[in-house]
Structure prediction request, 212 residues.
Amino acid sequence: MSNLPNDPFPASDFDDWAETYDQSLLEHTAFPFDGYDRVLETILLRANPQPGQSVLDLGTGTGNLALLFAEKGCRLTCTDFSEAMLAKARNKLPRAAFYLHDLREDLPQELTQRFDHIVSAYVFHHFELDQKIGICANLVRSHLAPSGSLLIGDISFPSQAAQDIFRQGIPDWEDEFYWLADQALAGLEKAGLTTDYLQVSPCAGVYVLRAG
Prediction:
């Protein structure tokens, strides 16, 4: 686990949220969760998982995305930096392997295998663009099977201009490191990754990354 000083996103915040997280998704269908279910379904569709494939879900939260892959017969490994979130996910996914892990650090040493798919939903907007790119590049090069894919669904806008327009209608906007697709795709491709992007809702999209 990370012990970053003045961490803007401490695990304790997510521990506190774990009990009501799934209910909050049902109650808040506007920003930032507009399109949440479609984002998860798009990740599943683009991955096209097959029974028996290995899937690593990073920042699994209460396990909503991982559950979709488990229902397809995949073998799940899930990480999160919140103990309370992992406890909720374990109840949904009793056969999955779980690791307490902060995505800003290297993966646990036990995770030496390469995965058929690595997935993540609504996690990477906590990282600045350079950090996003660095994490993605390392995952693809060191932890993804040669024919595999890294799929990330998150709060994302086509461009800074699109975000600025969208933001005008959000009275309680919170500044975080939301994806800007035009900048992100350029940076990911410069890092040697093959990229594809789909805007799923006005404020969310899915990135599909592979080795270049």
The helical segments are 11-17, 21-27, 36-47, 64-70, 83-92, 129-143, 160-167, 181-190. The mean pLDDT is 93. The chain has eight helices and eight strands.
